[in-house]
Amino acid sequence: MSEAATRPSADAGALLASLDPLLRAWLPRQRWFAGKGRPVTGFEPVAVTELLPPGADPGLLHLLVRVHQQMHQQTHQQLAPPSAGAERDHTADCYQLLVGTRAELPPRLAPALIGHVTSGALAGRTAYEALGDPRLAALLLERLRIPGRLGVLRFARAERAELPPGLAPRALGAEQSNSSLVYGDTLILKLFRRVVPGVNPDLELPLALAGQGCDRVPAPAAWLTADSGGAEPLVLGVLQPYLSGATDGWELALRSLSKGEDFTAEARALGRATAEVHAALAAALPTVTLGRAQVESLARGMADRLEAAARAVPALRPYAPRLRTAYEALADLGAAPGTAWTAQRVHGDLHLGQCLRAPDGTWSLIDFEGEPARPLAERRMPQPTARDVAGMLRSFDYAARSCRPPAPEWSSACRAAYCTGYADVAGRDPRTEPVLLHAHETDKAVYEAVYEARHRPDWLPVPLAALDQLAAEATAPPADDDAP
Fold it and tell me: For residue 330, which of 52, 82, 245, 439 is within the disulfide window of CB 3.0 to 4.6 Å?
């Protein structure tokens, strides 16, 4: 690859201005665009790099673009936490875009069309989503095979990683917040679309786990970052081994439910896999002991999220007073003498869809990015392992409630088996800390309610039914240990 074909653009502003009218219409239609429902008011170039010059056929532009949007007043009032301070009329997220350009788009690439450029530096060219073009997608892998720097972009490769040349790419279409390319059923490249400065946990944690020899998580083979102009880089993409033939846990769970089959053996194996990952993370990265102040802060954060969620989702409001007692119980227990919990790095968004079972029955955990809607600094904070356990327990419940008729017995059996499997490895059962686990499960269900209200309103009854049950449990009198 010649240096002339991979140079940083000398006129980023002109190239972006030429694409501006097309991107305003195209961006809001993308599944990974987080600003749906708010008008795009402008673009600001962070960096534009010519991986292939625009005059070539095809050309390939790598863009880091700050997208300015107007925030609706009502939306801001609903979603801003009480401590948000002064209101803002605009938001500006940074997105990673890969734009191909051609004189004429062949019919096979029609689904990737962004639009026909009519003015500016790219006038007369056709712009399209580059990941839909196998020729341009292949170029990304070839560039990752050669560590080095190009403008603000930095290509890095694990020391002993094998990256065979010539692997045919194909795009995966099922994701929402990111985009992925599979190369020859051997490697998978995840490209982060909305990016922020700092170490992305989806690179940081798999690297740490690889250093511990934990084979439950595919080890990064290569990665792409960019200088952000500050102290911390932007993590743009991670290349990992592709688990060919693996099936995600959500699909397997729904299959089990539809056939009326037992899933407890799989749930127990998943519990063991989770505990192994937690143990490796605790060995690789610092852990902390949560004192009274830290537990109070944890409970207060959950309560604040509940208040914000109740403003955004009116259907959640009747449950809020009872749900709040779960967080009050957590704060009270944290203040009790002798209470001490350990916090460590965790997955952060663990559910059945983040677990893959290989054909030989081995379970792996993927997607360590955490909940993308939360700030990066929060996603990188040590947390009680109960957070991940609660995410999985909620996922079993979600699967059971999503089928018709619901299958509460299936959920209860899987939840118990998962905790038993976790205890097999960790030496302690998560159910022995019911207040901590219940608070985290409630927090997760609140998050689910907001997500469904925004993205899949027809699914909102699923987390609401769970919140009704969690609210009842939070206000139930304590069990009588002496009862027969």
Answer: 439
- Whole-model pTM: value is 0.90
Looking at the structure, do residues 209 and 296 belong to the same domain, yes or no? no
Instruction: Please give the pLDDT value at position 36.
Output: 81
**High-pLDDT (> 90) share of the chain, %:** 82
Report the DSSP beta bridge partners of residue 171.
181
In the listed set 241, 264, 284, which residue is the last one of a domain according to the structure? 241
Q: What b/e string do you get for 202-217 counting C-beta neighbours within 10 Å, with b at 16 or more?
A: bbbbbbbbbebebebb
pLDDT above 90: residue 30: yes
Residues 341, 202, single domain; the answer is: no
Distance CA 433, CA 292 (A): 16
Tens-digit pLDDT profile for residues 405-435: 999 999 999 999 999 999 999 999 999 999 9
- Of 197, 216, 241, which marks where a domain is finished? 241
Q: Half-sphere exposure (CA, 13 Å, Cβ side) for 188?
A: 16
How confident is the model at residue 174, as a pLDDT?
A: 67
Residue 302 domain-assigned (yes or no):
yes
Same domain, 255 and 237: no
Q: pLDDT digits over 140-163, tens only?
A: 999 999 999 999 999 999 998 999
The residue type found at 441 is: E
Look at residue 308 and tell me whether its pLDDT is greater than 90. Answer: yes
Q: What is the pLDDT of residue 479?
A: 52
Note whether 351 and 219 are same-domain residues. Answer: no
